[in-house]
UniProtKB/TrEMBL annotation:
InterPro entries: DHBP_synth_RibB-like_a/b_dom, Sua5-like_dom, TC-AMP_synthase, TC-AMP_synthase_SUA5. One of its GO terms (molecular function) is L-threonylcarbamoyladenylate synthase. The keyword Nucleotide-binding applies. Required for the formation of a threonylcarbamoyl group on adenosine at position 37 (t(6)A37) in tRNAs that read codons beginning with adenine. Catalyzes the conversion of L-threonine, HCO(3)(-)/CO(2) and ATP to give threonylcarbamoyl-AMP (TC-AMP) as the acyladenylate intermediate, with the release of diphosphate. The keyword Iron does not apply. It comes from the Bacteria. HAMAP family: TsaC. This is Threonylcarbamoyl-AMP synthase. Keywords: ATP-binding, Cytoplasm, Nucleotide-binding, Nucleotidyltransferase, Transferase, tRNA processing. It comes from Microbulbifer yueqingensis. Coiled coil: none annotated.
Length: 186
């Protein structure tokens, strides 16, 4: 992992850019979750409707503190058993995230990553980022940099950060309130 890549990627995010970065299993597209224009650009690139919502990722659980305030001790224990790692949790947002992040949902998807580049990127950026699989809707998620470039060419502001974590499937998605597994992991 190159510190220069981390800095360049974080600057691109801060400037409203959309970047591609490795995650635990696949490449992700990322942007500043509070920059509506950046999120709309990311959604256009993926051909993804805003109604589906997006995942917020950080390397530090503290970045999610306002979203975790209303959770019980038992719910927090569930998160702590899987974080940092490749499990994304749907957590009630109580109106604390913009609608372009939550979509049509009363919950927001959160993951505390253990991927070295992505965690360092969030620290350098200063908080959580949007991270969604780097592929157009209906296409297979990119597992290699060359696939990202094939999908998006020069439309991104940064593509880099090394290799994925090598997991066979994208992150597991669980609903914290119901306990349902919406997308199983490997």
């Amino acid at each position: 992992m190159s510190l220069l890549d981390v800095r360049f990627a974080a600057r691109a995010l801060a400037a409203g850019g959309v970047i591609a970065h490795p995650t635990e299993s696949v490449w992700g597209l990322a942007c500043d979750p509070y920059n509506r224009d950046a999120v709309e650009r990311l959604l256009r690139l993926k051909d993804r409707p805003v109604s589906k919502g997006l995942i917020l990722v950080s390397g530090d659980e503290a970045d999610f503190s306002p979203l975790l305030d209303n959770l019980t001790a038992s719910q927090l224990q569930q998160l702590h058993r899987t974080w940092p790692g490749p499990v994304t949790w749907l957590v009630p947002h109580f109106g604390r995230v913009p609608p372009w992040i939550s979509g049509d949902h009363h919950s927001v998807a959160l993951r505390c990553t253990n991927h070295p580049f992505t965690a360092a990127l969030c620290r350098e950026f200063g908080g959580a980022i949007v991270s969604t699989s780097a592929n157009p809707a209906g296409a297979q998620p990119a597992r290699h940099r060359y696939q990202v470039l094939r999908y998006f060419g020069g439309a991104l502001d940064f593509v880099g950060g090394g290799a994925t974590g090598g997991r066979a499937s994208p992150s597991e998605i669980r609903d914290l309130i119901s306990g349902d597994v919406l997308r199983p992991g490997s």
